[in-house]
Amino acid sequence: MSQDLLTTILPLLERTPAALEAQLRGLPDEWINATEGEGKWSPLVVVGHMIHAEEEDWMPRLRRILQHGTSVPFDPFDREAQFTKSAGKGMEQLLREFRTAREEGLKELRKLNLQAHHLNQCGLHPTLGETTAHQLLATWAAHDQSHLVQIHRTLARRLKPEIGPWAQFLSVMQ
Questions:
Q1: What is the pTM assigned to this prediction?
Q2: Which residues form the DinB-like domain (predicted)?
Q3: Under 8 Å CB-to-CB from 127, ≥6 apart: which residues?
């Protein structure tokens, strides 16, 4: 399933920067800083998190699997590093940084010319234990989709007080 996996996930991974840009570029601050409530992430924070994942998670962990297997565990991933790393940055800058990081990651992924045996190799996650390169790559694409949904949901729910009884017909408001 090696080439099938890459054929499946590459179109998703390639489109994420454009999807984020189409949804978020040029929006006023009240939209990009909106949250679903206390302790929830705004679109600005989500994009910062996605940049951090590009830099510290997907390709670094894939390289670790290919070079060391399970003999060297993955470094722990700080899911909240974006609060420091992206502090003071605006959405336009974060969108550019994400696009650049993604393009570099996909360029490196393609250069690896992964085969089935590569995707079956295991790495050692600090919490999950053994995971395969295949699982890591599938999770990369699913992670993108999860955060795109999160952003869409956050933006839609910002309108909840305005739509009144119509909310009952919109699953995103539940």
A1: 0.95
A2: 13-151
A3: none
